[in-house]
């Protein structure tokens, strides 16, 4: 069987329809086409990366870079492709990009119930830094802030 390696590349506008589908499959409050268009064209701090396997988009990750601080806005792997280390590969690739850009600290918010993502972040040294109460609008769930020095 031929093994293929996923590729991480920069997001372009043509990816947005696929990303909206991924959002709808992955999140309770999915981002819309407008949110991605805003990030791509109007947010100077935003960097979005796509993971492709054999030409199929299987995940994405958003990174804000503000001077020397990096913030992960979102990361998702399409449900059918989870559990095969693609999330690991994508997250580590984006952490490398943050380092290359000169970031010295990286942070993110994650649902307190999302133990799978938290476990992945801990592998990269992220530790809990605080709680944002009622952060998620669909169920008022708290966000755990996690961060790491790069
Ligand atoms: C979080 C997510 C991106 C991980 O992607 P993935 O490709 O399934 O993860 P990987 O196979 O690369 O595993 C990476 C690590 O995640 C954790 N993990 C993944 N699946 C897990 C599971 N079923 N149970 C516990 N931990 C799990 C583990 O720490 C794993 O590393 P390990 O196998 O060495 O222990 C994916 O689950 C996802 O898209 N979730 C929905 C969206 C989401 O919650 N995003 C985070 C928003 S803050």
Can you walk me through this structure?
With 150 residues, the protein is an alpha+beta fold. It is 30% helix and 35% strand. The protein has a 7-stranded mixed beta sheet with strand order 1-2-3-4-5-7-6, sandwiched between helices. The protein is globular, with a radius of gyration of 15 Å. The N and C termini lie far apart (38 Å). The relative contact order is 0.15. The model has no long low-confidence stretch (mean pLDDT 96). Coenzyme A binds next to strand 4, helix 3 and helix 4.
Which properties best describe this structure?
single chain; 150 residues; alpha+beta; seven-stranded mixed beta sheet; 4 helices; 7 strands; binds coenzyme A
Helix content: 25-40%
Bound molecules: coenzyme A
- Specify the overall morphology: globular
Strand order of the largest sheet: 1-2-3-4-5-7-6
Low-confidence stretches: none
Order of helices and strands: EHHEEEHEHEE
Q: β content, as a range?
A: 25-35%
User: Count the helices. How many?
Assistant: 4
Query: Main beta sheet: strand number and arrangement?
Result: 7 strands, mixed
Q: Which secondary-structure class do the elements indicate?
A: alpha+beta
Termini separation (Å)?
38 Å
Total strands: the figure is: 7
Radius of gyration: 15 Å
What's the pLDDT, averaged over the residues? 96
